[in-house]
Amino acid sequence: FSPEIHRSFARSLGEDIVYEKLEVPLGGFDEFVDDLIEKGYKGCNITLPFKVDACKYADRLTERARSCGAANTLVFGSKVTGDNTDGAGFIADVTGRLGFEIEGASILVLGAGGGVRGLLPSLLELNPKWIAVANRTMSRAAALAESFGIDAVPYEETAAESFDLVINATSTSLSNMAPPVPRSVLAEASLAYDLVYAAEPTPFMQLAMEAGAGAVADGLGMLVEQAAESYLDWRGVRPDTSGTYREIRRLIEERARGA
Ligand code: NAP
Question: I want to staple 227 with a disulfide (CB 3.0 to 4.6 A). Which of 5, 53, 129, 201 is the partner?
Answer without folding.
Answer: 5
